[in-house]
Amino acid sequence: MTDRDYAIKSMKEITFQMANHAQNYLEVTIERHYTDIKELMTSYQKLILENQVVLEELDMECQEKINEDMAYALSYLSIYNNQLNVPKMHREMNNLMIIYGLSDMIYRGMTLVKFYAPNGVMLSEILHSCFCSHYNKTDVEVQQELGIGRTSFYKMKKQALGYLGFYFYEIVVPQAKDKRFKPSLGVEEE
């Protein structure tokens, strides 16, 4: 399912949420979710950076011990289990599965921002550059990369986090609780 297909499927829930709430309630809800999502995205950014280091270390360990990459080692784990730290690899793989689930939910929220927030394409670029990069970018680097002035950048960053918080907590999380939705981009079961 493409991003656009997911956004279209979620449109019914978005319009339902918008129709059920008065404009001032929406503003309060977006502001309330802003704080929550800002904390979540800051933690998520750290999680990406830390786990990238862990994966690189595990891959280096596999290269040193069996002269192959980690994917090869995992596919032939029973053959090489005396040379690898198997419990550590299982623990790391479980952590990666949890991170994958969280990443999928955040990506769905960012997809909704891209398609339904005012100026959504730029807002989703800001979110991606600030929080989903494989290295820690400063706000100045992101501003220069996107060609946005300082005041506009901070205003748009706050808007992006507010919309992401609203879509994440009001649309994506309820979808994740709904058993009809699969973990990958909210595909409904027939």
Automatic annotation (TrEMBL):
Name of this chain's protein: Phage transcriptional regulator, ArpU family
Species per Swiss-Prot/TrEMBL record: Dorea formicigenerans
Organism ancestry: Bacteria, Bacillati, Bacillota, Clostridia, Lachnospirales
